[in-house]
Amino acid sequence: MNLNALSYSDLTELRNLAERVARDAGTHVRNLREKGVTVAAAKSSPVDIVTLGDQAAEQIIVAELRDWRHSDAILGEEGTNRAGASGITWILDPIDGTTNYFYNQPNYCVSVAACVADTSYSEGYRAVAGAVYVPTSAELFSAAAGLGAALNGKKLRINEAAPLSESLIATGFGYSAKKRARQAEVLLEVLPRVRDIRRSGSAAYDLCALAAGRLDAYYEAGLKVWDYAAAELIAREAGATVTGAAAAGVISSKPGTPLLIAGPAETVKALQPLLPALK
Ligand code: IPD
């Protein structure tokens, strides 16, 4: 399956379904949050937690997708890995910003992306439709390939490129102490050169905020495919260039896990030499 095989109505159908399941799951996790949060497990490190909300949201999304799209594959942060025959893979982050959710900070969201195989991305998937729902603000960001990006139905456009020194840049940090130490070293190079730095705690929210002009650019090394799948499409459809590391002597120049940079083309070009990918 590739993008060209999908018609306008296929793309809008996938986007509408992504919107619906993201909103359903997001409403549920917000209701659960009001009753309190239970940590279900720690994952890659003691600071990388999963709550009952993450698990419940993934179950809701998977059940709805199976009802509507039974021959699609599904890959979810909380362990879903279901094969399919249609060429579409749904990539889910049931709560992106789990630490925010745990502390009752508002920046957490549900991310749902319908993807096709694409080797120009480091994880081999590229979203063709997707939605990110922020339940605390009832903001629904969505996009379909070639059809633009919207926030609650209103078309999105990134900010015009500004010099790096006047650009507000978001980033994030991984969960391992070694990666964080390296990310802090990189930040030492970036911070003196930009207007300021933001760390929202949700990569999906950051990419949507970029699409909405709330930031000028975003970068992060060490993301997982579910963190960025839907939101990088939303940023791209709002006019962002999304790429990886600069070409010479790099781990990968494809956008994705080693490094993802998004923003106006000129800003991305100015940031790239400052940003190494993470092993
Ligand atoms: C995390 C968030 C965070 C980013 C981390 C991600 P999670 O996802 O997106 O902003 O900096 O790299 O792992 O664990 O909350 O789903």
Question: Which percent bin holds the helix content?
Answer: 25-40%
Shape: globular
What low-confidence regions span 5 or more consecutive residues with pLDDT below 50? none
Q: Largest sheet, described in full?
A: 8 strands, mixed
Please state the second-level CATH architecture of the largest domain: 2-Layer Sandwich
Number of strands: 15
String of helices and strands? HEEHEEEHEEEEEEHEHEHEEH
What structural class results from the helix and strand content?
alpha+beta
Distance between the termini: 30 Å
- Count the domains: 2
Number of helices: 7
Regarding CATH, which class of the largest domain? Alpha Beta
Average the pLDDT over all residues and give the rounded result.
94
Bound compounds, please? D-MYO-inositol-1-phosphate
Give the full name of the CATH homologous superfamily of the largest domain. Answer: Fructose-1,6-Bisphosphatase, subunit A, domain 1
Proportion of residues in extended strands: 25-35%
According to CATH, what is the topology of the largest domain?
Answer: Fructose-1,6-Bisphosphatase, Chain A, domain 1
Backbone CA Rg: 17 Å
Q: How do the strands of the widest beta sheet line up side by side?
A: 4-3-5-6-7-8-9-10
Describe the structure.
The structure is a single chain. The chain is an alpha+beta fold and 279 residues long. It contains seven helices and 15 strands. It is globular. The site of D-MYO-inositol-1-phosphate has 15 residues, from strand 5.
